[in-house]
Description:
The complex is a heterodimer of chains A (about 525) and B (about 220). Chain A is α+β, with helices and mostly antiparallel strands and about 525 residues long. Helices cover about 25% and strands about 15% of the residues of chain A. In chain A, the strands form 5 sheets. In chain A, strands 5, 8, 9, 10, 11, 13, 15, 16 and 17 form a 9-stranded mixed β-sheet that branches. Chain B is mainly alpha-helical and about 220 residues long. A two-stranded antiparallel ribbon of chain B has the order 1-2. The longest helix of chain B is centred in the first third of the chain and has 29 residues, at about 40-70. The two termini of chain B are about 25 Å apart. Classes of the chains: A alpha+beta (about 525), B mainly alpha (about 220).
Amino acid sequence: MKKTIISIGFGVLVLSLLTMLTLTDHGTATTPLMKLHTKYRQKVTPSVDHTQFTQLKKHFSKPQDVTSACISCHNERHTEVMQSSHWNWERQEYVEGKGIRTLGKKNILNNFCIGISGNEQSCNKCHIGYGWGDKSFDFKNSLNVDCLACHDNSNTYIKAVGGAGMPDASVDLANVARHVGKPMRTNCGTCHFYGGGGNNVKHGDLEKALFDPSRDVDVHMASDGEDMQCVDCHTARKHQMLGKMYSVSSMNRNRVECEQCHTAMPHADDILNKHTLKVACQTCHIPEYAKVNPTKLYWDWTTAGKLKDGKPYEETDSTGTDVYMSIKGSFRWGKNLKPDYIWFNGTASHYLIGDTLDPSVPVKINTLYGSYDDPDSKIVPVKIHRAKQIYDTQYHYLIQPKTFSTKAGDGGYWKEFNWNRAAQEGMKQINLPYSDNYGFVETEMTWPINHMVSPKNKTVPCAECHTRNNGRIASLTGFYIPGRDYTSWVEYLGSGFILLTLAGVFIHGGMRIASFRKQKENNA
Amino acid sequence: MTREYVYKRFERFWHWMQALLIIFLGFTGFEIHGSIHFFGFEQAVKLHNVAAIAFLVLIIFAVFWHITTGEWRQYLPTRKNLRAQMEYYIFGIFRNAPHPTKKTVLSKLNPLQKIVYAGLKVIVIPLMVMSGLVYMFYRYPQRYEVISLNIAGLKVVATLHTLGAFLLVCFFIAHLYLITTGTTITSNLKAMLTGYEDLPDDESEKSNSLMMEQL
């Protein structure tokens, strides 16, 4: 008896020891992550001081002169820039079912401000060039390259509103020219945080809070942490930046990947490493987006055009966010959002100008491909932006309206509030016939979420997917994940067996007790 | 009645460790399955995997023990006395009839037990071990330095593993109850704890057991 108890006790001891060992966090040795911490906390001082250059110690009357001064030393750099998508706003892409196309902001419609054609004066404020105000812009003129937009380190360079990419009159060009360097978050963010006509409108994970974020908002860019800059991940070779967005591109190439630094199997836990085969890093490490300021989720153009006393107006909600603008319609925003999740293999297709649409279903402006069965696919987090936007009810294609107005009578909707005129003028810009009949169609756009990576302790817990009901990936079906899925016949059969066994035990046991009592009575 | 040493020290250790591990694996397993909530999914997975490895080690020792001692023969199914044993559980037990199968050191199991335990050892436990191992080492698709098992989904593996788990729960319930059907209500339990049990006298069996001891 004693020996048995001792051996059972020993067994329990071994088990609990094993348990404790597995559950404790161990490892204080130098991890790859610690090496990365060290690497990115070292701030490099530039090898030259631009304030010393005589070429820059003068007055610049126009920005093209600055470019000329830049090229005088950095010769041939402009040719690299002029091959980039930052300059061309288009690149050659293979689009499934459509072949090789030249795609980009230049010719793709979206479901925010819709498109640049006819609106260059306003939209192209964010082009890295000077004066792309209409189709006549000379893409071959290197003096139109805006070096300062990306390389200003004085944090004083801004582009003029409605200025077709020209700097604001307030900018001291000479001062900016003397304070240039590697692009900072402020350079990239000036455009990329404000896409769609306001802060965080488009991406949801790229917004002004990233100028000075806390670790909780973004573990990489945190000002009190690694303070990483965009270009630390979006590295460049010969001015060709790594990374692109699936709003304008379609091929599985040139992507920024977490694995660049973190390797494909970064976890100490083997089970987590196996997840990387099917689950993108972002899926677990970005539990929510739009962490500080809201992002636009729905844009209804149909309500645009209401005027008060003949004048356009705006309405904001209690947080100061626009919910209605006469020029744009009504919006719905969201903050601290759980992403949607899709299977994605890195390839996408797009609605291209002139494509026929079916107005009875939401038009997919971009389609991200992928499925469980595709070995190249992983689950990725996305934001889905929905809208109602103008289309030609006779030709059944989306309309590029002219929204921005440069002169009276040019049809710009934001001045005239006449959809028909805006459509006529806009469609002229993209050389497509317009039937004079317009309506509004529902559209959908998918934006992968890649930024606002949370600290380790905020990672999505296992049980938020591995759960029976309302898990994060409840919408992704057709494959088995433990904790969520089950085979119903096994559940019924198994529970049935258990009930039968229990019933058998109780009936048999009851009968034994009854017969035992009876025998006792008989004996007595 | 003679007091006999029926369950050897390792046998008892194996039995109780196995009992603990199966209960623990069942508990954590059904949590992973989503049926109960106690440790939380993540901890349940970790604990389940550790217990699974402990169970594998135990199985290896048990197999070795069964082979080297020849005890595996105890589990060879037989039809002899099968009917009588069934009748005993259906009728005799209520009339306080004697057990139809004499329990001896050399033949500890009645024919029903033989069938059930053999089924457990040959079908259910191997099913759980195999499906469990595939579950544990499931990797798909082949990427990075991970070597894929080339199983495109967990569905079949998980279904089999769950089915086995349900069968084990049923076994566990029935087993707990049948413990009480020994000579007295607690005699079986006591025997598995101490190793000793009062067995009915039988000259030939006794001499056999003596022979075994001498061997």
